[in-house]
Design goal:
The chain has 225 residues and is α+β, with helices and mostly antiparallel strands. It is built from two helices and 14 strands, in the order H-H-E-E-E-E-E-E-E-E-E-E-E-E-E-E. Strands 8-7-6-5-4-3-2-1-14-13-12-11-10-9 form a 14-stranded antiparallel sheet. Helix 1 runs antiparallel to helix 2.
Length: 225
C-alpha cells in the first residue's frame, strides 16, 4: 500500500512537471517516463515481498471439523511462516483444539520457531527453537534443551510449500528433533513420529495438497480447500 501511494505521488509530480515543460518534452517522452516509473515501483514491490495464503479443511470420517491456514511471506532473503488452525470434534467429550505455529528463516537457515497449542481453553504446548550463537536452543515450558546442529534448513512447516524432493530429514518444531522422510509414492511421503503415529503428505506441483494424520485412535485429513 505504501509503495502504491509513493508511486501515485511520483506519477502526479512527474505529470505536472512535464506539462509545465511541454515546450521541452513531447507526449511520447512523458509516456516513456511514466512507464519507467511504474515499472520500477512495480518490480520493486514484487521483489520486496511475496506473500501467499493457503486454506485447508480438516476432516474426520469425511466431515469437516475445522480449518487450517498456511501463510508464507518471502522478503529479501527472509521467510516467515505461520500456521493457525482450530478443530472442534468429539471423542468421549467435546474437544476444541487451537494451534499456532511460526517459523523465521534467513538465507535458508532457521532462525527461530514456536508451537502453541490450547485444548478447551487450556495451554497444552508452548515450545520454541532459537538459533543462538552457533547452536539451537529449545524450550518446552520450563524444560531447556539444545540441538547440536549449526544449520536447520527444512522443518515441518516448510512441507506445506516445498516438496521434499532432495530432503531425507526434517526438523519437527513440536517434537524438537529431526525426523526421517520416507518416499512412499510419486509426490507422496511418510514421516513417522516419535509417539508411534505417522503422517502422510501428498503434493502436486510442489505444493502440499493433503496430509493424513494417522493416530492410534483416529485418522485426520487436512485437505486443501
Amino acid at each position: 500500500m505504501i509503495l502504491l501511494i509513493i508511486t501515485a505521488a511520483l506519477l502526479f509530480w512527474l505529470f505536472k512537471k512535464c506539462v509545465s515543460l511541454h515546450e521541452i518534452f513531447s507526449f511520447q517522452t512523458i509516456n516513456l517516463q511514466v512507464k519507467s516509473v511504474m515499472f520500477f515501483f512495480l518490480s520493486t514491490a514484487i521483489s520486496y515481498a511475496q506473500e501467499k495464503t493457503v486454506n485447508y479443511n480438516v476432516l474426520r470420517n469425511g466431515a469437516v471439523i475445522g480449518q487450517m491456514q498456511f501463510y508464507q511471506n518471502n522478503n529479501n532473503g527472509e521467510v516467515f511462516l505461520k500456521i493457525s488452525s482450530e478443530v472442534k470434534t468429539r471423542l468421549i467429550f467435546g474437544i476444541n483444539v487451537k494451534t499456532e505455529e511460526g517459523s523465521h528463516f534467513k538465507n535458508g537457515k532457521l532462525i527461530s520457531s514456536y508451537v502453541k497449542r490450547h485444548v478447551n481453553g487450556k495451554e497444552k504446548a508452548n515450545k520454541t527453537t532459537q538459533l543462538i550463537d552457533s547452536n539451537y536452543k529449545t524450550s518446552d515450558e520450563n524444560r531447556k534443551g539444545e540441538i547440536k546442529q549449526q544449520y536447520i534448513n527444512y522443518n515441518l512447516m516448510l512441507l506445506y510449500s516445498k516438496e521434499p524432493v532432495s530432503e531425507d530429514k526434517v526438523y519437527s518444531d513440536s517434537f524438537q528433533q529431526f525426523l526421517t522422510i520416507k518416499k512412499t509414492d510419486n509426490h507422496s511421503y511418510r514421516i513417522e513420529l516419535p509417539d508411534g503415529n505417522y503422517n502422510d503428505y501428498h503434493f502436486q506441483n510442489g505444493i502440499c495438497q493433503k496430509v493424513e494424520l494417522h493416530h492410534s485412535l483416529f485418522t485426520i485429513n487436512i485437505q486443501k480447500a
